[in-house]
Design a protein that fits this description.
Strand content: 15-25%
Oligomer: single chain
Radius of gyration: 21 Å
Number of helices: 12
Helix content: 25-40%
Strand order of the largest sheet: 15-12-14-13-18-19-17-21
Distance between the termini: 32 Å
Largest sheet: 8 strands, antiparallel
Structural class: alpha+beta
Amino acid sequence: MPDLVVTNWFGDIVSHPKVVAEAHSVQDIIRVLKDPDRYPSPVRAVGSNHSTTECAAADGGTVLKIKMNRILHIGEDTLTVEAGAEHLEMAKELEKRKLQFYVNTEIGSLTAGSAACCGTKDGSMPSEYGQVGSYIIAVKMVLPNGDLLEATEEGQPELMQKVRASYGTFGIIYEVTFRIRPLTPMGVYHQTFRLEDFVRQLPELKARNHSMMFYMFPAARKITVEFRKYNPGASGKPFRFGWKLRNFAWGRAGPRATRLVEKYVPWLRHGVRSLSHSLARFLLVRIGKNDYTIPSDQIISYPPVPGEGRCTFSLFAFPEAEYPRVLSEYFDFCQAYYDKTGYWSSLADVGYYVAMDQKSLLSYSYDTDVMTIDPASTGGPEWEKFLGAFNEFCGNHNGTPLLNQTFGLTAAMVRKAFGARWKAMADARKTFDPNGRLLNDYFRNLFT
């Protein structure tokens, strides 16, 4: 068989499996797992493959593409789907019935199976969680030996807590049930602060009781905060243009323009970046505000093949109480890194306020409310070097990563971040998969 190459969505994580298979039914998954001669280990299931780490790599093994994407049932407060169903498509079907997800996360190609066992992020709405998996209340999976297992929040809460953190190392999920809620109008507005003002006013901003997402501009030492809150009394027609403009700029136009500048006129990149960031702050504040928007409109439709408009990112979360100091030192770190190397991240950094959440054993907000720092870029060798320094900075500042969205993790970093919870997951994984049928090199190294 010729050498096979499978990449993540961005294209910088490359895997060389011996076999690429597709699953259109539960029996397809069982057949793959029970035939190691034809489908060698490790077997890694993938959806849109949008992760920025090697969590889905299957060097020498089998990549199993989940093609099961049917919506099976929509009830008053639950949604049951096959594991390959995508977040944006599900949200559209819910909207038709005046329903919505609790978490309308940015990446629209996120599949239900990935959401059920991997980490995600979004600014927590008032009195809600900010991770999609926290509202997944039941899963069905095929275990490594081919047996079937069903787990529910009501019947096995401790097992569900581990499944949500398993990253496909327990079994391959084929059916997922979400808890959903009635569709509710949402107000949104943006406000820009200088770093010093943001840090000083952060307790007051939190007291507004809004969801908060941050667009961070370290070179300008400014932050634009996106505030969201449900507004059930809204009337008239929803304002949809603001989200469409933001999604187009953030998901396609911005990365494409940045990449073209870096490719053809690299000597202009710092000036263009400064100008584009100023324009972004202006448009967010002037256009990104309305008392009546649809929550799911914030979900971005990323093309299956990204082309020149692709972007990548990383993430660390920090305890809320430490965030003002960490953020100030991060801005200083970025300036010092630029002074030393001449490099800035090409796109605006982002961040989220995420509520304390123990629904996943490896939740990055397990012990307290957290706030994140998520640098974003169009990639390249300079980006990976920057992430090496960024990881060291975050490790020294009590940061917690995401196994599928934090590039360059080591076993020492995850042990420090998760402590006893990491050992508990390692022990649970061995129980479900003692022979390592689903264990790739990435997780083997982290669990060592």
